[in-house]
């Protein structure tokens, strides 16, 4: 197993109220799995990714990555095993640094010494890697990332996240803030890179069509639990309407669902 | 020669301005400990020179003391999660007492003692009158080049990234807290080295000589940015030194001619603070004038 989430519980206090974000949750991902995760707002999707990446520590339960118990590892140590892409393109890059500098930082995780970040040889290698994106970014190595469009930045971020071939890739609605055309492009790049390097992937999305179309597993979360965990065959038989019906049955209001359905731009409008 | 002395000072204080640039711009950490580490460098170097230590090693020891004090601020701010400004103030206040202890009295006279600047000028047989200028220029140049090279290393680049986006640095497997501690240590090392050189240049070390260091450093950084509008790291670091020299020149002009306008030397810090205030407030003021005020 690449990822083992074992009986994990995480609660937050909102004022006097206790909110259970993850409720005794179990999840296993085998090598090569590409699982999509859907759920209404507050279902615990992002908390699940945070707990796996080490951004927050579970109250109870254990997290194992590639067989190792990482429950007490800080985020920067887990980063050797986990790559992560956030929804906001601003979060995945250092915008005041150049494309080449960002990639070079991502090309080597952890220990950093006094070797020059960029040499002619490293630049050439990075430019070859960038060319695989097919976005002509290899011609813009010396440009600051701030000058890239949201789609270009997010494609670069995906590349940075998988550059050191992590065991697990976490995608947190990483196309939600993009316009439809760019979202398609970035998703296609993601699928291609994940397949090429056969990286086990967990992708949170608001788009149910995306969740059905991408990957070999579909996970539906509700109130901190996994309601549905479907394999490839079952997933193929399902339609968006079926998922909406399932959500209604567990009492997710249509309001929450419409927001959650992420009609292209909804992700950008949410805070 | 009104500007000769100002240029010399601008270069020696330029080391301090580089340190402030490192904390304020690279790490995005407004570090007030510099008000304590500047006189710390002067105190350590001063007492060592009085005990007969070579002024070069005395200056380096002063810088080393600043390095440790900066690391302390970094530890307070990261490991102990004390808000950055407060962490700096705490270090600064601790250093006030410590500096008095190191010196044993509020000030040390170093006039007539060997100085690393005059020593370098002699060793290179620099022309008389310009010896201090060239010697301080050499020091400033070496520090600037080393800083520039460092910021282009893997470690230095990670430091630059961590100032803007610590989440990214964490996701890339590096603990941003360590980068912050190292960055603050380097920054205060430069500031203390500057203090050590200023003590040798001016011929005294004084426990009060650090008051307003952060404001003078910020003024240099900002003036340089306004003048050169740098787009690269090389440009940014050059701008800091140009800013430091211009700032010292402006001060010497103000001291010379300000009297006619009713200014005295004691008004200097008020004027400096107003300059920094104006520069920092400029974006907000510009927005307000355009009617986009918040």
Tell me about this structure.
The complex is a heterodimer of chains A (271) and B (294). Helices cover 35% and strands 24% of the residues of chain A. Chain A has eleven helices and ten strands. Chain A has a six-stranded mixed beta sheet, sandwiched between helices. In chain A, strand 4 and strand 5 form a beta hairpin. With 294 residues, chain B is an all-alpha fold. Chain B has twelve helices and two strands; from the N terminus they run ααααβαααααβααα. In chain B, strands 1-2 form a two-stranded antiparallel ribbon. In chain B, helix 1 packs antiparallel against helix 9, helix 2 packs parallel to helix 4 and helix 3 runs antiparallel to helix 4. The termini of chain B are far apart. The model of chain B has no long low-confidence stretch (mean pLDDT 93). Chains A and B meet through helix 2 and helix 3 of A and helix 7 and helix 8 of B.
Task: Write a brief caption for the model.
The complex is a heterodimer of chains A (271) and B (294). Chain A is of the alpha/beta class and 271 residues long.
Mean pLDDT of chain B: 93
How much of the sequence of chain A is in beta strands? 15-25%
Shape of chain A: globular
Helix and strand element order of chain B: HHHHEHHHHHEHHH
Number of helices, counting only DSSP H or I runs of 4 residues or more of chain A: 11
Largest two-chain interface:
A-B, 34 and 22 residues
**Rg of chain A, nearest Å:** 19 Å
Oligomer: heterodimer
- Helix and strand content put the structural class of chain A at alpha/beta
Strand order of the largest sheet of chain B: 1-2
């Amino acid at each position: 197993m690449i990822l083992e989430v074992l009986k994990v519980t995480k609660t937050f206090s909102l004022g006097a109220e206790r909110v259970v974000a993850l409720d005794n949750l179990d999840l296993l991902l085998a090598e090569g799995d590409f699982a999509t995760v859907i759920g209404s707002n507050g279902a615990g999707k992002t908390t699940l990714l945070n707990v796996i990446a080490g951004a927050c520590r579970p109250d109870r339960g254990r997290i194992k990555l590639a067989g190792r118990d990482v429950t007490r590892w800080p985020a920067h140590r887990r980063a050797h095993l986990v790559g992560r892409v956030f929804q906001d393109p601003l979060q995945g890059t250092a915008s005041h640094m150049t494309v080449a500098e960002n990639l070079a930082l991502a090309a080597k995780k952890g220990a950093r010494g006094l070797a020059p970040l960029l040499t002619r040889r490293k630049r050439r290698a990075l430019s070859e890697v960038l060319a695989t994106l097919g976005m002509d970014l290899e011609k813009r190595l010396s440009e600051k990332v701030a000058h890239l469009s949201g789609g270009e930045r997010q494609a670069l971020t995906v590349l940075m996240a998988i550059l050191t071939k992590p065991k697990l890739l976490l995608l947190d609605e990483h196309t939600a803030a993009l316009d439809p055309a760019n979202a398609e492009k970035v998703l296609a790049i993601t699928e291609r890179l994940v397949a090429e390097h056969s990286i086990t992937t967990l992708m949170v999305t608001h788009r149910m069509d995306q969740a059905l179309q991408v990957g070999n597993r579909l996970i539906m979360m509700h109130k901190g639990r996994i309601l549905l965990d479907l394999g490839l065959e079952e997933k193929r038989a399902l339609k968006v309407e079926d998922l909406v019906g399932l959500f209604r049955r567990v009492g997710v209001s249509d309001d929450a669902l419409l927001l959650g359905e992420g009609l292209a731009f909804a992700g950008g409008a949410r805070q | 020669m009104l500007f000769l002395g100002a240029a010399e000072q601008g270069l020696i204080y330029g080391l301090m301005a580089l340190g402030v640039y490192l904390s304020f711009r690279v790490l995005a950490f407004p570090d007030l400990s510099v008000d304590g580490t500047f006189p710390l460098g002067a105190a350590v170097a001063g007492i060592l020179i009085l005990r007969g230590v070579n002024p070069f090693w005395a200056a380096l020891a002063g810088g080393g003391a600043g390095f440790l004090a900066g690391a302390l601020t970094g530890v307070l701010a990261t490991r102990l999660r004390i808000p950055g400004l407060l962490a700096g103030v705490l270090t600064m206040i601790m250093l006030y007492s410590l500096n008095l202890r190191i010196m044993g009295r509020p000030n040390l006279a170093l006039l007539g003692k060997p100085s690393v600047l005059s020593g370098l000028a002699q060793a290179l047989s620099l022309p008389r009158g310009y010896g201090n200028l060239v010697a301080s220029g050499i020091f400033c140049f070496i520090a600037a080049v080393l800083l520039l090279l460092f910021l282009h290393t893997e470690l230095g680049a990670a430091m630059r990234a961590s100032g803007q986006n610590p989440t990214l640095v964490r996701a890339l497997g590096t603990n941003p807290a360590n980068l912050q501690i190292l960055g603050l240590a380097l920054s205060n090392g430069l500031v203390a080295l500057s203090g050590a050189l200023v003590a040798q240049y001016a011929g005294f070390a004084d426990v009060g000589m650090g008051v307003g260091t952060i404001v003078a450093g910020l003024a240099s950084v900002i003036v340089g940015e306004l003048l050169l509008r740098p787009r690269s790291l090389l440009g940014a670091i050059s701008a800091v030194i140009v800013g430091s020299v211009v700032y010292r020149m402006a001060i010497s002009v103000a001291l010379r001619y300000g009297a006619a306008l009713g200014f005295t030397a004691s008004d200097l810090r008020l004027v400096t603070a107003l300059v920094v205030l104006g520069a920092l407030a400029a974006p907000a003021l510009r927005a307000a004038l355009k009617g986009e005020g918040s």
